């Protein structure tokens, strides 16, 4: 009688990946989600398989861990362990068997090797069938990352583009970002992050067993995105010269960063700032199948001593001083991942804050979270992980003081400034979603004592008001409004001061100031208009990710009392416009055309480089040198062939070389099947 001989295997990659919703992810292996079955077909040579006297035993191996899975001829798959069930034989294929393999929803994620041992009366032989990458499964109720909304799963797992919010709470700017999880080799690079981690290098078996748990996975990745204490992806830099790397403002997608990290054998990519760290982590977690969104906290407190108070100091001339290690970042960007928190008990499932920007250590490594958003809102500072740090970031008080020779001339406490707006991209649209109340519980914080905000006698008030939204290339126009609430006239001195600052620290030197004397009558309100010219601020390196700290001190000459008003704002860059021909009938694998347009508002000739990119739309970026005269209009056609269906984003960036700014524009496109 002929011997049963293994011939080949068909891993049925296309139908399996379609079923597991991993189609489009680029990997050297079959890509599957845990908690579901996949089907393979094994073909034999010689005689047919006989289920009465032949045994098939699969083995799945990841690192030093392996499981043997005997093939059953009937029965139901196990929910808690690997299992394999023989499909009914096909009479037209007598020398082939199809098998359903089931993975538990608690299986560790990773790259597995699949083998088959064939036992007959005369021989036992083992054959390696191939590899598969196993991911988390937010479609499976048994998985700890299960998300019960189909729309939210599409947004937070499958979607490969988004918006990052920057600027200030009063002038939010939306920045397009391409998460790029479908780009070539990106999934394999994301899996490599786990292999390079200190946890895997120290104890492979323990690390692999812990990869069942998204809490563990997210803590590992939070540390691996920065390079502070491991072979992480990004090196942070917040000021100075970026010429030995890339200015963080120049990045527009995650793929270039992850490719560079991989190609340089895990050398940190220079450079990142908070939104870059967060966006790259979002890419990795979505690739792993863990629902993730990018979140911005405006006026984010960095409380270094844990007293929940941020102290700010100004001179009597309105110049802000750097006297405290505490700081308020105009915005800070982190991610939220969706998962069950069985370690915290009921009520803490759902969104968890994870912050890969290296600020403080958590259990000896630069990482933060996962901190349950619900625990932050309820001030459960005992809850793991890092809830007190995040709670302070959204709730700290701000004490502002005017000082001279170490003496406090006036002060006020603001309980509302920190965490003024917490937001993310709205699912299914390009609009902002305000999620502030998911973090802040006014019942816990209580009401504010109105007297806490005073810095001056009740008879004198001062405020600042921007007259227009500041736009690069135009003057900054603002008013100082002074009201005398008393029945006697006053002689006053006005000191106005403007300093440029980066979003995450105190301002640097003053670049503009103005001083004047004035007289104000009883019960009178005086409005003083000021302009800072484009030339005055553009020469002082107020760049795309820089802001302006504007302050005015009004001094009562007779009483020596002083009152301060301050405002921090960003300078918005003009936007590029993208138009797509027949935008409602863009078909996959068919050439399409778009036009990038921009009319220069600048009073000088500008030069720069235009870059157009689009994950799933353009195989390679389009790069062009640009020169524009004042009021000249740019019109550049771009041709692309979509290779994936569904929502995609075309993104244009114009980095000017003779003005310190970057202009951006984007267009979302819904690619239809052929």
Give an overview in words.
- Strand 15 and strand 16 (320-321) form a beta hairpin.
- Helices cover 15% and strands 42% of the residues.
- It contains 13 helices and 39 strands.
- It is of the alpha+beta class and 674 residues long.
- The chain has 4 domains: 4-135, Sandwich (Immunoglobulin-like), CATH 2.60.40.10; 154-165 and 173-441, Transglutaminase-like (Coagulation Factor XIII, Chain A, domain 2, Alpha-Beta Complex), CATH 3.90.260.10; 456-570, Immunoglobulins (Immunoglobulin-like, Sandwich), CATH 2.60.40.10; 577-671, Immunoglobulins (Immunoglobulin-like, Sandwich).
- It is elongated and about 110 Å long.
- Helix 6 packs antiparallel against helix 8.
- It has a 9-stranded mixed β-sheet. It has a 6-stranded antiparallel β-sheet with strand order 21-18-17-14-24-25, with helices on both faces. The protein has a 4-stranded mixed β-sheet with strand order 16-15-22-23, with no helix packed on it.
> Main sheet?
9 strands, mixed
Protein structure class: alpha+beta
Strand order of the largest sheet: 1-3-7-6-5-4-8-9-2
Average the pLDDT over all residues and give the rounded result.
Answer: 91
**Which architecture of the largest domain does the CATH hierarchy give at level 2?**
Alpha-Beta Complex
Q: What is the terminal separation in angstroms?
A: 51 Å
The amount of helix comes to 10-25%
Compute the number of helices: 13
User: Superfamily at the CATH H level of the largest domain?
Assistant: Transglutaminase-like
Apparent shape: elongated
Oligomer: single chain
How many domains? The number is 4
CATH topology of the largest domain: Coagulation Factor XIII, Chain A, domain 2
User: How many extended strands?
Assistant: 39
Low-confidence stretches: 446-456
Q: If you compute it from the alpha carbons, what radius of gyration comes out, rounded to the nearest whole angstrom?
A: 30 Å
